[in-house]
Amino acid sequence: MQSPHKLPVKAAVTALVLGLPAAFLTTAGPSAATPALPSGDAQALPAVELNLGAQDLPEARDVTELAPGLTRTSISRGTPNPSLFWTAEVAIPANSPDPDAPSSALSGEAQAQSVANALIAAGVAARVEKVRSPQFAGAGGDLGYRVRAGQFATKDDGASTVARIKAAGYSSSVLYTGWDGDAGSIDQSRGQWKLEVLTIDPKEFTGELASTYGPDLVNRETTSQLAAADGALAGINGGYFVLDPKAGAPGDPAGTAVFNGEVLSEPVGDRPSLVIDGKKNESSIQRLGWRGTVAAVGGGPENNDGGKAAKDAQLALDGINRVPGLIRNCGGTGDAPTVLPLHDYTCTDPDEVIAFTADFGPSTPSGPGLEVVLDGQGTVTSVNTSRGTAVPAGGRTLQATGADAATLGSLATVGARLDVDADLISEDGKPLKTNTSTDVVNGGPVLVSGGAENVTVKRDGMVRTGDNNSFYYGWVHKRNPRTIAGVDGQGRTLLVTADGRQTASLGLSIKEAADVATSLGMVEAINLDGGGSTTMAVGGKVVNSSSDASGERPVGDAILVLPRRKD
């Protein structure tokens, strides 16, 4: 990792609120040092370049104070690199007797060379390239070999080559080599990159750092819509969420979610989350576990003891506010094919009990199974032999599938009381303490901990087996749009977006995301949902460039910087 170094080109500071002295509103030439601002003024980040690409790249920063204690820093690094080009990448068939085995982006050298030879024989000038990735704990290193063909000035120029590859019996697509993120590539070290950074100083900012999911969990809204609806000064997209209806309810968090102190979604294993204390405007990164139970409480219709008798029976609560049997990103008890986190994969479990609150949406998921409706005191008001109903105001419902339907049915009779406990468990084994200003946003992997890079892709489920490292290649190794959150050494929360999948902004590999976090001064950092979700809004308007062709993507939740406290 290269060492940070002084900004050589530009640091333009615009103070909209505090009216800084003229000496601070400067553009420094190549040999000028960036002026150090007094504590509490608009200067928000270390006056060092990003640890991104070659050391001699030009870098420009524009810092705007949005409110006392809240700054936005726009960073442009590098210049367009004419040595980068578009190329056709070939999907390599599996070297397997199974005709339905999927193709992959990478393979062993012999298989890749065999595909390249077949394409060459068909008149396509194919080449084999070895892919090396930065080494992490239990991940990275030599990933495998890819097959590519051609060098094109534009994406459209590759269409005829892709057609010839397909005619030879292979799948292919055209991509930009600047998105590769290959370790040690000189061509890919020149940029260009564009990033946006929000810095919230808890000692100065008098508004509130918070998160929101909008009107309900299951309908998605864009980050700018969520920010505008709450009158936020600024905001970024939040955690992972369900996108495909086959994986659950679109918009539903795919991991931990706490809003206003209420646990509304359970963790994925012990994957990390951003924990926000809105009262203090502080945040931390924590790994949270899960403990959920449903218990029958003595004092039902024939036991008039006021519900003070011991709980006489209980069963495990598998989750909150999600479709029973579908666990996006896995990591739950009894999940198949794994009980460990597995990113962007939907595990299944036929026997589950899921609790629903009114936050979920107008109606709970429909389907076979049992659904018990509880009022605000936990009293059973109805027991339905199929799933799908409205959640009563102040109450909740419990859905059970498979063998758990009979078990729940044995506890739930109309008039009985059920105690539903759902606790997030901190790493010290104690329940996470929350209040009405506590929000939790899921993410992963960890990028930085204890002031040092610590990328936890294997622990957090970004390493798959049996796919020739193809998922890892696309998700971890390659450059993508990224959203990062973290805390610096002064206790300030930093929210970062890096544009990607564009020729004018290449995006970040996960290693580069960690490098950026440390060079911005973060001592704790986490990767949030990225790709087409990556968005920053300021004043309700998007200030970065979305990678989705359709424009800003609707998301599950957002992290907002509010101008005043919610209470």
Describe this structure in words.
The protein is mostly beta strands and 567 residues long. Helix content is 10%, strand content 37%. The strands form eight sheets. The chain has a nine-stranded mixed β-sheet with strand order 1-2-3-8-30-29-31-27-28, with helices on one face. A five-stranded antiparallel β-sheet has the order 9-35-11-32-33, with helices on one face. Strands 13-12-26-14-15 form a five-stranded antiparallel β-sheet, with no helix packed on it. The protein starts with 9 loop residues before the first strand and ends in a 5-residue tail after the last strand. Residues 1-42 and 299-311 have low confidence and may be disordered.
